[in-house]
Amino acid sequence: MNHFAHIPLARLVVPFTVGIIAYLSARTHFSLLFFLTVYLLLGLLWLLGRRFFLGHYARRWIFGTWAAVFLLVAGYHIAQNNHQLARADHFSHFLEEEGFLLLKVREPVSEKANSYQVITRVKEVLVNGEAKKVSGHLMLYLQKDSLAASVCYGDYLLIENQFQEVGDPKNPGEFNYRRFLSYSNIFHQAYRASGHWQSTDENRGFFLIRWSLAMRHKALETFEEHHLSGREFAVVSALLLGFREYLDEDLRREFAGAGAMHILCVSGLHVGIIFLVLKFILSFLNKVPRGRIIQTVLVILLIWFYAAITGFSPSVLRASTMFSFVALGQSFRRTTNIYNTLAASAFLLMIIDPYIITRIGFQLSYLAVISIVALQPFFYRQLVFKNYLVDKAWAILTVSLAAQLATGPLSLFYFHQFPNYFLLTNLIVIPLASLIIYSALATLLLTPIPVVGMLAGKVLFGVVFALHQSVKFIEGLPYSTSSNVFINLPETLAIFMVLIFLSLFLMQQRTMALRLALGIFLVVSVSISARSIQNLRNDKMVVYHVNNACAIDFVSGKESVFLMCETLQDDPRKVDFHLKENRVQHGIRSVLPASLAEAEEPFVNGNLYRRGPFLRFGQLNLFLLDQSPLREIPDPGMPIHYLIISQNSRVNPQIALEALQPQKVIIDASNTFWNTNRWEEACQEAGIEVWPVRTKGAYVAAVR
Q: Among residues of the chain, what percentage have pLDDT more than 70?
């Protein structure tokens, strides 16, 4: 018996997804003729064999195989066509031509620490008054000034035809920003200082998106008028409108540590709450002729109206599409299967943008919904409460448990942390988040009525304050978060298999499923234990690539001494971005920060000894030349394995190399291009191996 016969759409979306993943993994391009030939062959097989397998129940697998192959090829084909860099008219193919690029701002401008980030679509290459139509996206960074701050979605900008490819990560384990941007078809970037770009004073943005962004801006102004400010304003902006620009690091840490970060990302939860409220409010329509159809149309329209208020953010578009299909499915008189409905919405989204499967939000949303549909009813039936409030609390707990089981492994894989009190968190924040959505919408609708609008605003402020304080309290509890947990992709997939087999055992009492779950769990445990033992043997030096900064880890087992310059001491976010992933992967639990500046007394910690510019780490002898003044190069009295150049040392390279005779020279990323080139040339003349971190990336040296 086929247990999946009742969910045909869910079965069909699997090979289509596999085809997309196959392209993203292989990146092998095939010609249009190849795909047409494959489609023609599949069509001939269909015509020749349909009488053979159609109508024959025992041979239905043949049609299933044919359909799976067709969808797999189609998925690969659509994913390949979505890769804009391969197109002949991509603007990067016109780099050798002088002239200008005409850009259209594709998204709202994002403010960064030192610039404005502008995602643009390249429309034309202008050469000697001649315009060539081109395609592709460019990530533009503009120096902060009043003109850059006024750039809006839909504006047209003009810059010189000069840009760079987005670089690969230059540190071990570092987040691959190049690959992340490539999934949005962004492969190039450019920086323009004030006065080196201009606006054409023309805006051709799609009117619907411009209208939605204006509505979101008006909503933010309304919240400010009701005296929401600081973190309360940041929470409302993120929770209701998906505008996360005002979230500071402490606020993000508190919500992430408590397991409530999903509250600040407008997604399925928020749209689901609005969906349920709309269904309840419009339930009276079911009693009138054609009322079910009218109700469905109104629900879908209002869901997309909410999507418009949020500025049509990608997460809301996903959730709105999902619940639009759910609404359509529920509008039919006959019973529909929720898995088919979810599969249909996912299928549509992947046809529009096949790379959407790489988005963490897409993965988490569908996993959570599928798990809630599959597991929550089973969990809920295990206990029965007659008290209404207790029953509703139990329902929230079972929803949270089902969602966390599906999203937990993926959260560990991506974010390396797990909220231990997620049940307590969701028991508090889900009702409060619902109240915030209701009161915020009420505030927006009732603002024209002075007294009522003011009261709604005060209620909103009180609920947001309660939410923030609750999250802060839970995050501050002992052992609230299991952090710095590393699992690789095979282990993540294996954990999912364990959860699936355990669910089958609990729900269907299959003994074989329990045996498989325990066997896979044993394999995962051995894999994690073996890596932990291997990490105990870590003895290495890592000179990281951090732009305009010196960052060196001396790793011994699960401990590290971190040598850094002053610019990093007050920028932990920058340190985490470049270094954290490598530390988590290698199980480094303790990091002792140490200043790059020379100390008056010798420094000793584990295998590391430092006295002035001399360092000894295990069997490695190092000499550090930084901005500290040296009248002469002291005699090391020992062979120097590595000479590290940092912070634009003014020491003459020829004199230093002759005095120290190092086996290898490492020039870290705190040096300018000029100083890096100066030392590279000197090393080449002296026949000494050199490693410029700025261009080659981090250097890792094992202790001998």
A: 95
